[in-house]
Design a protein that fits this description.
Blueprint (H helix, E strand, L loop, with lengths): L9 H19 L4 H11 L9 H23 L9 H30 L4 H32 L3 H4 L6
Helix pairs in contact: 1-3, 1-5, 3-4, 4-5
């Protein structure tokens, strides 16, 4: 069981926002990756030649996601805000679990496709990547609801650490 802490650390906050930016950037640079993968498989190309911005963004996001997990396991995280009751707390836990699962599985499928030449993994990656993008958008909307409607401080915890 991970320990709880009163607030997220500056490192946790920085990793959160950097990963978010990389995920969104990777999603917006995924055009033509299917064609690049087909060409890569047909020619037997290896390495990272071709349309690589998406590959670099996804790889960087994956490494930072792994770092986020390690930091969270070592440092812990603040408990959810008390407002909202047990159903909202459960939704938050499962929503985060889904985000983390997608943040791990989408780049793994992408790596299997790009580096392993597994065409089917490319299709899985595309589906998981889109799911990750839209779940992350929903996550952002929920954070804004917490901030502007519930006014419970949830969003502020991921913007600035408590002194």
């Amino acid at each position: 069981m991970m320990s709880t802490r009163p607030a997220y650390s500056p490192l946790q906050i920085g990793l959160h926002w950097l990963v978010a930016i990389l995920i969104f950037a990777a999603w917006f640079t995924h055009e033509d990756m299917g064609q690049a993968l087909r060409q890569r498989i047909e020619t037997g190309a290896t390495g990272i030649e071709g349309n690589t911005l998406h590959v670099w963004l996804g790889g960087a996001a994956f490494l930072l996601i792994l770092a986020r997990i390690v930091v969270r396991m070592v440092s812990g995280a603040p408990a959810p805000e008390a407002q909202g009751g047990p159903l909202m707390a459960k939704a938050a836990v499962w929503g985060h679990r889904l985000l983390y699962a997608l943040m791990i599985l989408a780049p793994m499928a992408g790596a299997a496709a790009w580096y392993g030449g597994v065409r089917e993994a490319g299709e899985v990656h595309e589906t998981l990547g889109s799911a990750l993008f839209f779940i992350a958008l929903a996550h952002a909307v929920v954070a804004l609801v917490h901030h502007y409607v519930l006014k419970d401080g949830t969003l502020l915890r991921m913007i600035r650490p408590k002194a």
